[in-house]
């Protein structure tokens, strides 16, 4: 399944998500043509169970799609739609066609079939038809809800550093399109964890593209009568970049591969930390090697680097996830340390502190 | 592109199944082994411990059963060695034989050579060192001058090796020497020999390191006569054989676990209620450790599939060494504890020792600059 997804999405992005198209969408322009192609192909239903009309793909199967979305700097919530539909399906609800996003940082209360509260920094919140969120019922039990975006009572617009919409949506007694209790085994912060996993994969993809671009530039750009890539000073920098890009790739892949039964908390936390650090190092070296041309709007380097700077902080920075990990580790003590690491895939988010000191 | 070589590989269940047994064995056998000695990691020498591991079948376990191994596969070995390293077990005696020399002999040796060397390696009784560097040939290994000249049924060795870890404790050295003139290519004309270190004409002198330890040595060959079957592999193909070993040498968990004793004592010294900086740094390091382990496992999978992941192995070693070397620095950042050679807490003593050892991590097994040069070549820059 994975090979089919990867090959198809690669073609689609190559045709439609060109640098000019991506740049044109910055600032909140909805990529109607691109989204129509994604939606028509049924990609957003990949993680929905077969019983509910999806492909029942695993996260391991979906890794390549999310990574490709990063590599092509796709200006649309593909990962968010995959995550939203996966969660709906886990809760026994039907997947949602059309444009879909997730609300991760929320204070939402569900009373009967109506939701009130606020959803912060919803990716493409101003554009999408619907969003998936986890709301609290009056009894405190978490519930998966599907909300129609145009039922929001207030929309506060915001853009991340790459010009991607991250809008606040307020709801006042908004009627839900669907709801179901959050399945046992999933944490109330499942969407934060899923969001971190998505950004890790997108970061890994963007780093790969950035490394290709920078190595190519170093091979072609001539100074002092030879390619700048023939200088050891440049080679050593690019080697460090390559190591970081490789680390980011395997960390993100591990997070998806180990999310077989729910989401693999510790593995995802490690992925967000490793990809965040790699993003910082990689973007810095890419700009250093490119020189002034990389600082222009015309040259497409910034399409990648500005997204790396945005994604590394979304759904928890490397610092936040490090702190959560560190608190758990110190709590457990040194004897438990190595056993904890070697069983990383079985360490759920509930063991990680939600709000570190 | 080269970075696509890294794909995630989960440890197979049958390898994972060994973990509980080796953990229990370590706990029982090393119950009283102090943390200050555990800090030596794979430089800790204890022949008795190596023999006990051999008796369990955990040395040379990936080698064929016909030669005393278990044909257990690289992942089973991985679980065993990572548990040993994480615990700081004294594995130095058999380390090189298990990691490198045994697989080399198995790959390039004749049946007679395998019969002669491998069973004792698997029993944890036969120890090897690697003779590569010479006084004027460090990173530029191809410039070595030590040589072997054919004389009837034997070879006569002359020259000097240096920085040879464990030569003073080893039975054999696998030495890379010149057996012919440099041809068109500078890597031609070298061969590998298994040299019995008890032979006449060999002088071994330990070199004390900056912390007073004796791990590496100078080794002198003065008309050392070795039999024809000391040659391992093909005459003149020494460079290719050495290069084939490097992925094994550079991708294992010993390239990022050298400071485990410090990390563990640091966690306890910080205690159960860390401040924000302490939890962030310990969490950050642990995330990196997990990622390094996944990279290392990925290279292991490639080696198991018969591939030649020299590029990926260089990434593991360089990133791993940076990680290991960062640990004493982070420890200083998190706690106001003076390192102590003597006296002080266990943590202070482990910190003092590993602060001094850290520079060696990126020297042994290929320097940082050489590794990054290999990585740059993989990016098409050289």
From TrEMBL, chain A:
Cofactor annotation: FAD
Organism in which the protein naturally occurs: Pseudomonas turukhanskensis
Keywords, ordered alphabetically: FAD, Flavoprotein, Oxidoreductase
Molecular function GO labels: acyl-CoA dehydrogenase activity; flavin adenine dinucleotide binding
Family per record: Belongs to the acyl-CoA dehydrogenase family.
Leader peptide range in chain numbering: none
Entry protein name: Acyl-CoA dehydrogenase
SUPFAM superfamilies reported in the protein's UniProt record: Acyl-CoA dehydrogenase C-terminal domain-like, Acyl-CoA dehydrogenase NM domain-like
UniProt entry tagged with the keyword Zinc: no
Pfam families named in the record: Acyl-CoA_dh_1
Domain Acyl-CoA dehydrogenase/oxidase C-terminal: 197-308
Keyword Ribosomal protein: no
Automatic annotation (TrEMBL), chain B:
Domain annotation Acyl-CoA dehydrogenase/oxidase N-terminal: ranges: 13-125
GO molecular-function term, one example from the UniProt record: acyl-CoA dehydrogenase activity
Organism the protein comes from: Pseudomonas turukhanskensis
InterPro entries xrefs: Acyl-CoA_DH_CS, Acyl-CoA_Oxase/DH_mid-dom, Acyl-CoA_Oxase/DH_mid-dom_sf, AcylCoA_DH/ox_N, AcylCoA_DH/ox_N_sf, AcylCoA_DH/oxidase_NM_dom_sf, Mycobact_Acyl-CoA_DH
SUPFAM superfamilies named in the record: Acyl-CoA dehydrogenase NM domain-like
Cofactors required: FAD
Protein's UniProt name: Acyl-CoA dehydrogenase
Positions of the Acyl-CoA oxidase/dehydrogenase middle domain: 129-224
Keyword Transmembrane helix attached: no
Any matching Pfam family: Acyl-CoA_dh_M
Keyword Oxidoreductase: yes
GO cellular component terms given for this protein: plasma membrane
Keywords tagged on the record: FAD, Flavoprotein, Oxidoreductase
UniProt superkingdom: Bacteria
């Amino acid at each position: 399944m994975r090979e089919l997804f990867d090959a198809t999405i690669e073609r689609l992005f190559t045709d439609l998500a060109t640098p000019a198209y991506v740049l044109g969408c910055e600032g909140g322009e909805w990529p109607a043509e691109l989204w129509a192609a994604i939606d028509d192909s049924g990609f957003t239903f990949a993680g929905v169970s077969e019983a509910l009309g999806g492909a029942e793909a695993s996260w391991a199967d979906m890794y390549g799609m999310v990574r490709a979305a990063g590599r092509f700097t796709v200006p649309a919530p593909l990962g968010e739609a995959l995550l939203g539909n996966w969660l709906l399906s886990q809760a026994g609800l039907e997947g949602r066609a059309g444009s879909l996003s997730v609300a991760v940082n929320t204070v939402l209360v569900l009373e009967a079939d109506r939701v009130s509260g606020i959803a912060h920094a919803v990716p493409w919140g101003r554009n999408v038809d619907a969003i998936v969120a986890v709301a609290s019922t009056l009894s405190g039990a978490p519930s998966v809800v599907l909300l129609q975006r145009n039922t929001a009572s207030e929309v506060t617009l915001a853009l991340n550093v790459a010009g991607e919409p991250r809008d606040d949506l307020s709801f006042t007694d908004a009627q839900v399109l669907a709801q179901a209790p959050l399945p046992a085994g999933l944490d109330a912060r499942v969407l934060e964890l899923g969001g971190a996993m998505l950004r890790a994969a997108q970061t890994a993809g963007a780093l790969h593209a950035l490394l290709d671009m920078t190595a190519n530039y170093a091979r072609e750009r001539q100074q002092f009568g030879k390619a700048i890539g023939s200088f050891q000073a440049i080679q050593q920098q690019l080697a460090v970049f390559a190591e970081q890009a490789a680390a980011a790739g395997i960390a993100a892949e591990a997070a998806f591969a180990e999310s077989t039964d729910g989401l693999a908390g510790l593995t995802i936390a490690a992925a967000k930390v490793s990809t965040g650090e790699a993003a910082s190092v990689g973007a810095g070296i890419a700009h250093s090697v490119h020189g002034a041309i990389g600082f222009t709007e015309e040259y497409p380097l910034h399409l990648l680097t500005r997204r790396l700077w945005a994604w590394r902080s979304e759904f928890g920075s490397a610092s936040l996830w490090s702190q959560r990990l560190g608190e758990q580790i110190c709590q457990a003590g040194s004897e438990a340390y190595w056993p904890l690491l070697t069983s990383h895939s079985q360490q759920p988010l509930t063991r990680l502190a939600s709000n570190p000191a | 592109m080269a970075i696509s070589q890294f794909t995630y590989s989960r440890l197979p269940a049958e390898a994972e199944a060994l973990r509980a047994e080796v953990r229990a064995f370590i706990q029982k056998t090393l119950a009283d082994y102090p943390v200050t000695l555990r800090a030596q990691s794979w430089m800790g020498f204890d022949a008795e411990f190596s023999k006990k591991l051999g008796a369990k079948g955990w040395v040379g376990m990936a080698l064929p059963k016909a030669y005393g191994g278990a044909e257990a596969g690289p992942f089973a070995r991985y679980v065993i060695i990572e548990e040993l390293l994480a615990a700081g077990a004294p594995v130095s005696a058999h380390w090189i034989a298990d990691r490198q020399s045994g697989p080399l002999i198995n790959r390039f040796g004749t049946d007679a050579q395998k019969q002669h060397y491998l069973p004792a390696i698997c029993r944890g009784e036969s120890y090897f060192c690697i003779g590569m560097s010479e006084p004027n040939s460090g990173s530029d290994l191809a410039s070595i001058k030590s040589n072997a000249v054919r004389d009837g049924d034997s070879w006569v060795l002359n020259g000097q090796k240096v920085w040879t870890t464990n030569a003073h404790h080893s039975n054999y050295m696998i030495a890379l020497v010149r057996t012919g003139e440099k041809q068109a290519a500078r890597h031609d004309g070298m061969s590998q020999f298994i040299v019995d270190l008890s032979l006449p004409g060999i002088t071994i002198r330990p070199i004390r390191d900056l912390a007073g330890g004796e791990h590496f040595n100078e080794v002198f060959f003065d008309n050392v006569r070795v039999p024809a079957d000391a040659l391992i592999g093909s005459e003149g193909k020494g460079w290719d054989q050495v290069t084939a070993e490097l992925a094994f040498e550079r991708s294992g968990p010993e390239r990022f676990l050298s400071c485990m004793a410090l990390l563990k004592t640091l966690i306890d010294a910080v205690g159960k209620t860390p401040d924000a900086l302490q939890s962030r740094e310990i969490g950050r390091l642990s995330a990196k450790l997990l990622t390094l382990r996944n990279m290392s496992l990925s290279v292991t999978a490639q080696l198991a599939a018969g591939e030649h992941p020299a590029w990926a192995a260089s990434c593991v070693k360089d990133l791993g060494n940076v990680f290991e070397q960062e640990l004493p620095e982070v420890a200083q950042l998190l706690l106001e504890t003076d390192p102590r050679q003597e006296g002080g807490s266990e943590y202070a003593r482990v910190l003092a020792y590993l602060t001094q050892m850290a520079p060696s991590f990126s020297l042994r097994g290929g320097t940082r600059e050489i590794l990054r040069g290999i990585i740059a070549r993989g990016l098409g820059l050289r």
